[in-house]
Task: structure prediction
Amino acid sequence: MIIQGGMGVAVSNWMLARTISRLGQLGVVSGTAPAVILARRLQVGDPSGQMRHALKHFPYPDIAERVLAEFFIPGGKPSTALFKNTSLPQIRLSADLVELTVVGNFVEVFLAKEGHSGLVGINFLEKIQFPTLPSLFGAMLAGVDYVLMGAGIPRAIPGALDRLANGEPAEMKVDVEGALPGEEFLSKFDPQAFCGGTAPRLKRPQFLAIVASATLAMSLAKKSSGRVNGFIVEGESAGGHNAPPRGPLQLSPIGEPVYGLRDVPDLKKIRALGLPFWLAGSYAKPEKLAEALQAGAAGIQVGTAFAFCDESGICPELKKKVVEQCLAGTVRVFTDPVASPTGFPFKVLQMESTVSDAARYAARERICDLGYLRHAYRKPDGSVGYRCPAEPAEDYLRKGGVIEDTLGRKCICNGLLATAGFGQVISENETELALLTSGDEVVQLARLIKPGRDSYAAADVVRYLLNQTKQPL
Result:
């Protein structure tokens, strides 16, 4: 009945997902840049040993050994030393990034599933297309049970899951700005080539599409490349990326997108599709769970309440500050219409000394050294180039972009890595700024914190949601 949201970069880490799954709900790991996370965990010395433990179980030891040789630093790198960056994603991934992507997704799912029989899912953003196919394969090698995907129209994913499960090559169309009519650009992945000749038959995970409207749900149910197994219906109060409002964009007096009645999903039409669905966006209350069940939903997806629990991947000091703000009643979230390079509205928790701090943001030197949210664009000669509205403006303009696209854009890649404690070193005394995203429900987290405490566990959230609806743990 409860799906734990797949949040941020390593916020929904394997520890959080494993905890939720052992409680009988659906634990979900983030599928956003696990290659980078694995590389940086190894570079800080893998102090828990869990990365190396999972790598020993990767079914292709030579690949695991190459990853270790490239990134593992016994005892960890000096705190002032830069992280070694991974190759930038593009339509045709470099061989080393293919391997790291498969292995990174395997490691996260393997650890989340280890030691229990519960279900585990992985969450991807449709807008991050270049590494999708090897990411799916890596998660499937570890036996992932569910794949969740939002922030776009993931019609190609169900069919890709079918082909990868059968050990067959998979491909998907990649969005390229400026592509000519009839021109297609494809991302491809061949399991047989990756596995050295013979690919294993794998379990095909259930696919849940994250949607914000009945129209999209109906389209995916009818026109996807394979079977969609259900939906997560997400409202605009959820954290991370939100679907843009329907119709012309209007902003509130403080600059947030204005949502109206047209943006309320028609649950009757979604229910008529006959597929299970879960409701998301400010549903982390027992009465809201009951309301969802009464509306015909199978349950709810909960993100924010889990994002700031003890087991999540957010830096402990950041979590502590958020909890302090919650208890003081000063926490605030801003739905930023331009922060994300994707063009989707993105919720940013307001906190000093993070990307939301206007002065600190303005002082940051723009850089694009991770590249997960870069856009592919067609060059005049027909080849493909890559640009990001959050990269240095002069670079973006040189690549044919327009200056308006760069205004207010924030480097979400670096910001989210910093939130999880893996921010790139800028100088001896400075690292990349964290970027905290959260749903509107963060203002109510205090209800989960017992008197005399300044934190709470994932199990506290599950008990809070289920006990009052008389559902057993």
Remarks:
- The domain at 2-315+448-467 is CATH 3.20.20 (TIM Barrel).
